[in-house]
Each structure stands twice: as C-alpha cells, then as structure tokens.
Amino acid sequence: MSEQSTELQVQNPATEEVIATVPAATPADVAAAVVRATRAQTAWAALAPGERARLLRRFAATVDEHVEELARLEVREAGHTLGNARWEAGNVRDLLDYAAGGVERLTGRQIPVPGGVNVTFLEPLGVVGVIAPWNFPMPIAAWGTAPALAAGNAVILKPAETTPLTALRLAELALHAGLPEGLFQVLPGHGPVAGNALVEHPGVAKIVFTGSTAVGKQVWAKGAAHLKRVTLELGGKSPNIVFADADLETAAAAAPMSFLDNAGQDCCARTRILVQRSVHDRFLELLAPAIESVRVGDPADENVQMGPLISRTQLDRVRSYVTDDLDGIRGKAPEGPGHWYPPTVLTGVDPRARVAVEEVFGPVAVVLPFDDEADAVRLANATDYGLSGSIWTRDAGRALRVSQSVRAGNLSVNSHSSVRYWTPFGGFKQSGVGRELGPDALAAFTETKNVFISTEA
Ligand code: NAD
After folding, report:
1. How far is the CA of 210 from the centre of ligand 1 (A)?
2. Per-residue pLDDT at 4 exceeds 80
3. Is residue 395 part of a domain?
C-alpha cells in the first residue's frame, strides 16, 4: 500500500486477513471537516455547562453499552488480548465520565486588584486535532478527545493507518448518544497526508499527537508556523530498577508483563531492566521461568497474555534489533500466519548497543547490571527518553530519593502501574511535551483570558 493510496486496508494481525477497507482522507476532506467542526464548536461552547456534561455522560453510557463490541473490534484490528481490549473500551467510558465531571468545575480565578475586580476565564481553544497511534487506538484517542470536548472544543481525530475501526465506531456512538453533528469527527488517513493537513491547517488551534519522537518533532516544527498549541506524547525506553534489597521474587514475577503487555508495543514498557550486580544472577534465575511461561497466542482467547505485533513492518523492525550473537531468555510464540515474536530478554548487552538505547516497540528487554544507587540513577537517566520507570526496593528513603532523581514523568515504586485517567501522564526530555489525564486535563484545552472590571468609572 503506497503512502498516497486512497484506501486503508485493515488487517487482523493474528491472521493477516484483511477485515475492512476504509477511505483515506485527503487534505480537502480535512479542510471540510474543519469547517464543520468550527460551526459545531461555536454552538457547543454556547451550551450551558450542565448540558454539555449531560451529553458527555450519555456518550460515556453509550460506550459502556458497547464495551464488548468495541473490545472485540480492537482484538480484530489491533491484536490486543481480550482482557486488555475490554479494559481499553472501559477506559474510554471512564475518561468521558471523568471529563464530564470537569465541565462545571472548569473555573477561573478572582485575583485581588485595586480599583476593580479581576477575573480569569478558561475559554475553549476551538478545533482540536488528535493524531493517535496504533498501539492503544481507543484509550489514546480518548485521552485527547474527552477533555477537549469537555472544555468546549470540537475534535477531529485521525487514527493510525492500521487501526481506524474502533475510532470510527466511537464517532457513530457519539452521534447515537446525542452529540451534535461535526463536534467529534474521525478522519482515517495517512499520517503525512491527513495528519499533516491537520497540523498545517490554520483553523486547528491545537494538536494532540501521540506517536514516535521523530514524527512528534515534525509536528511541533510545522505547527510552530501558526504557533499551534501542542501536546506531544512520544516514545520511551523506560528503566525497571531492581535493588538488592527488593523483594526479588515479586520483582521477577512482575517484570515480564511490564514490557510484554500489548506485545511490548507500549510507550511505558520497562525495557531496560537494571539489576544491582550482587543479585543479578539470582534475579535472572527467577526471571527465566517467568518469561518462558508467558502465554502467547490467539488474542481472542481469554487465557492468552500476549498477542501478535501489529504488522509485518513492526515484526521486521523488532527482528532487526535482536541479532544472533545476543544471549538471553526466549519465550514461546506461535508459528504460521500472524506477526508473532517471542518474549525476549537479552543479557550481557553493551549499554550503548542499539537494542539498549532505542525504543524497540516489541517484546524485547535488556538486563543491565549496576553497582550502587548512584550508578542506577546514572544508567536510568542515560537515555534521551523520560517517560516512565519502576523502582523496586524495601528502603522507603531510597525509593523517594531515586524517584526524585530519575528524569521521567511517571514512576512507580514496587509496582509497574503508570497510567490512571485521574492522575497526570506525560514525558520528560524527548518523551513529550505537556501532560494529559489527571485533574488538569481540561485546562490544557483552554486559553486563559484575564478581564479587569473597573469599579471606579
Ligand atoms: P507514528 O509517529 O508513526 O504515528 C503516529 C500517528 O502519527 C499516526 O496516526 C500516523 O498516521 C501519524 N503521522 C505519521 N506521520 C505524520 C506526519 N508527517 N504528520 C502528522 N501525522 C503523522 O508512530 P506509531 O509507530 O504509530 O506509534 C508508535 C509510537 O508511539 C512509539 O514511538 C510509542 O512510544 C509512541 N507512543 C507514545 C505514547 C505516549 O503516551 N507517550 C503512547 C503510545 C505510543
């Protein structure tokens, strides 16, 4: 399929079967969508806050009624395990509910001034473009869309080329729930065509981009021509730091799914396992059976923990990192059709090797030893990325010290959790710009206006 093809073929990554073909949006389609969105946004922003909140809650309830259908669609188009896909559809519902709760709480401030009253208003930006990746098509689309709508904006969502189906279904559900026509539009298309048209369109006030760091930089540079607002959620190469004083059994049991979830196609994947040298060998003894027992297979099977990679391109990319000379632990993966790659942990790797510094975006991690706390922090920070990370230790002081020293936006101690819709999420360094989710999510879709009213005139 060429970059300019007029259609997108959607393939089931577990079978390589083509399950749908959808038209690819052109720049003219984007321009027409901006006209519709601008009209819809004006009316939406003029609605009473309670009414906007009520419609968003209805959208959330409609998604809730369709969680199973959306999840099954995600399994077919993205190869996600059924359990993950159900969580993802539920996450869209929860994001909409949470954002709806913010509509009536989106308050400005009253600031004391002499000679009058000074107030601030948080006004919507207008039309927001959301450009989503294929790795978590539904949640990531909703991270931008739900708060943007709640803050009074219209949204044009461009899903990734390989995963447009759940986004299209969400747009239908929005209309079904009573959201006005044109307020939330989904335009599947090629990144350099439809995505780029959104970035370059002067009528789009903000771009929320989630994807690779390379494209994120282009989006920021092109958007700068209009001083366009951006939120960028980009790549990661996150550390999982295991100190000798940690509960090693628990840390080893938790490590596999911290980088194998979604077949490693997760920007938060803990793909650099940093282990204190004194427990390095013991940790590997515990890790090996945990990796070997991960169940990889048909993502629609409820017992499966890991499905296929999204595409042949992604599979080739992952293979290019794991050369035959590298030692390590390898799990099992199905043979035959489908983009399968086994869980893989590489040992004895040079910390400067490509596989140790670049984002593989597949089920591959490296284990690197460190000597002491300072060495652990140095290694953890020896990356251009700064998205997430985990720290395993029984020493509370160390947990806090290391949390404060690792330059990343989302850390967890004695756990690998990093994403909750009600806590902030985003990257340091080349992992991103801005924050999504959490209590300030709506404010990121507003401009602050300051108004002084004289009491002396
Ligand atoms: P990608 O950058 O190739 O594509 C992401 C989106 O951008 C797609 O919709 C694509 O069509 C579009 N796009 C591509 N070129 C464009 C252009 N020139 N102008 C405008 N839009 C364009 O990334 P990908 O391979 O689909 O996704 C994987 C990447 O996403 C990984 O690097 C991963 O770490 C990152 N990611 C980050 C987060 C986060 O929250 N930080 C979350 C998920 C994924």
Report:
1. 5
2. no
3. yes
